[in-house]
Every structure is written in C-alpha cells, then in structure tokens.
User: Fold this.
Amino acid sequence: MDRIVIALGGNALDTGKSSIMEQIGKASETFIRLSNVINSNEAVITYGNGPQIGEIYHKTSYPLDISGSMSQGLLLHILSMAYNPLQLSGKLKKSAVPILTHTFIDKDKYTLKPIGPFYDHKIDDSYAMEINKGYRKMVKSPEPTGIMEIDSITYLMSNGYLPLAVGGGGVPVEKLDTGYAGFEGVVDKDLSSSLLANQLAAKKLIIITDVNNIYLDFKNKIDPINKIGYSELLSYYNKINFEEGTIKPKILASLKFIENGGEKVYITSIDNIDNMETGTVIEKG
Assistant:
C-alpha cells in the first residue's frame, strides 16, 4: 500500500459550460476509474477550480480568496454527491471527507495563471490567449509554502479515509502574528498538490489532465514524453519555454516532488488511468 496524492484538473469536471448534473456525472466517472487506486492505497484527492472560480469571480466581483473558498464549497459538494452512491454500492471502500483548505504563500514570488471561461476575443489587458483555445483572465499565482490543514489530512489518510482537499490549490493566505489574511490571487493546484505530497511523505503523485502525455512542444502536440528521469526533464524545463499557468507548473510540480523525496510522478488523462505507465512517467535519476 502506497501513500498517493491524486490531482484532478479543473476541466476534468467542467469545461466552463457543463451543468451541475454533468459535473456530477464526470466526477462519478472519474471516481470509478480511480477506484482501484483509491481502494488499494492511502490516497488524497486534490482538484482544480479554474472554470468555477472564474465564473464566481466574474459574477460576484468578490475578492479571489473569497471566490476560491466559494468554488471549493461548490466542488466539494459536487464531488461528495458523485462519491457517496459509489461508496454505498461498494465500488469505493472508504468514506470521503471534504476539507476546505488554506495554503500559505509567498506573496512576493508569483507567476500568472488563467482562470474562468474561454473567450473568442480579449476582454481587457488582463486576458491572454491559452494554447489557441481562446482568451482567459490572468491573475497572480503565488508560490505555495505550506498547507494549513496538513495535520487533519494526515490523520484522515492514516485512518482509512479519503480526504478531498486543496481545491484550486487552496485558498491563498498570508501568515500574520494574529492569524492569517486572504491574498488576492490563486495558487496553482499542481504546485500545491506537489507540496502536499511531500508534506505527507507520499511516494507517488498522479496529475490528471486532458491528454495522455505531456509534450516537448505542447502547443502543437509534438514529441510526447513517456518515461523520463528527473535530470533529463530538468534539462528540458531549463531549455524549453513551456507555457505558464498550464503545462509549466505541472512539470515544475513534478520536479519539486522528486527533489523533495517523491519517487514517481504520473501525468496522464483520466481515460488512461488503467494504463498510466504509457502516459508521462517521471522518476528519479
């Protein structure tokens, strides 16, 4: 039995146009495909919120930390509604525990990350093209430094539960002498998942995205990466201008996980979960 962190992409549940019932259906399909991994290991599931937080932010104009917490509540409810019938049917053996999660950040170290739906035109200067899919809102994405609820997550995993945590990378917060304060930005889900995996001393990190493999030329889907060692991937990372906010943080998250004690990273699609060794596999060396 291994300790594993499984990071689900936000678009795995919602393309930006999916109804709530469609999102529940997609979550159910995802849990069924992950059932062997969940039942056979100590696991935690993290999840992206790009489409959802963008929609909430656009409609409410609430600060991004508040919008992020609202998106966590929405997605935790959707994931729970998908999970519970599968547990009752016996397909999933553990009880899932939804956790609203906060992530400590370094506010002075950040990149930009896309959130929300795609548009066919530039709304304003804060929007940028994302791999020829359309324009999305770009916001600050600070570097994660710690998971506030790590003790609770560790306890639950160790006692046979499945935590659903670190949604959208966690609500970004700054430490204060009197507590903490929200930060106007979003944390990258894969970087937070990598940090969580290291804090849990997990052996494996599984990053679920919308392709079976990552590519050296991700924009044109040329030169897929299958099995690769840490050193070779680091060399590519330093040479190739991978796109910020999408594939670059997945590669960086993988490198950080291996650097800090992790053994193996899988990056693949949910449809390929039974054949993960044919996806992108990153190992030590």
Summary: The longest helix spans residues 64-88.
